[in-house]
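Task card 7
Instruction: Convert sequence to structure tokens.
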Amino acid sequence: MLAYNERAIRAYQKCGFVVEGRERETAFVDGKWHDDLMMGLLSTEFQDWLRSKVQS
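Output:
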């Protein structure tokens, strides 16, 4: 996911995803270089996230 897509990043983070890495200047879009973010979610983190949603 491109680092400038803050709306998508927030959506993923709301679901428990975390930024695990950044590839700097890997995407050339509209004449500019942009960073690419790698986001991930472990199964244990997902289970914890699910439990927090059920309890609230």
